[in-house]
Design goal:
434 Repressor (Amino-terminal Domain); 6% strand; 2 strands; Lambda_DNA-bd_dom_sf; Cro/C1-type_HTH; 45% helix; DNA binding
């Protein structure tokens, strides 16, 4: 039986993938986990000996609850001033079958809890508002637009209504 070594696959002249025999892959995984265990054992220290110079947010609890729950404004550079909808938002809405509210929220990297707080509703109510075919009142749309930091026109996608004339011509 012919011994097969690793095969390096290139993309545009740059190494991109390596194909290995399964036993070689298993050996590399075992070596990596052994070195990870050794480094973890070397870094381990008994409780109470944590270096006091370490300033880690996970170890230092915050007492400022207002700062913890502060609503941050979305980055202005992501929202166009000319009331247009960015291409990425439209693509996300169309390809994922999302509403524009959800596409904007994902585009601005906001979570549902933050948006629910901004809009002033519970998270479950916000999730209902964000559904693709949710029928929202104009006041609710305004609250969503304000919470996202976008214009109302950027939250409404116009749909072409089929006129009777268009329907008759299609037959």
């Amino acid at each position: 039986m012919k011994e097969i070594g690793p095969k390096i696959l290139e993309f545009n002249g740059v190494p991109a993938f390596v194909v290995l025999r399964y036993d070689e892959y298993q050996r590399l995984i075992a070596m990596a986990s052994a070195s990870a265990i050794k480094s973890a054992a070397a870094d381990w220290s008994p409780a109470g000996t944590i270096d006091s110079n370490v300033d880690d947010d996970l170890l230092t609890p915050t007492t400022d609850l207002a700062a913890l729950h502060a609503v941050q404004a979305p980055p202005e550079s992501l929202i166009p001033d000319d009331n247009l909808i960015p291409h990425d938002v439209v693509v996300a809405a169309v390809h994922n079958h999302w509403s524009l509210a959800r596409a904007w929220r994902e585009y601005l990297s906001l979570n549902q809890a933050t948006m629910a707080e901004r809009v002033g509703v519970s998270v479950s109510d916000y999730v209902t508002m964000e559904l693709e075919f949710a029928r929202l009142s104009p006041a609710t749309r305004e609250r969503l637009a304000e919470g996202l930091g976008v214009g109302l026109q950027q939250l409404v996608m116009r749909r072409r209504r089929r006129r009777r004339k268009d329907y008759d011509e299609g037959l």
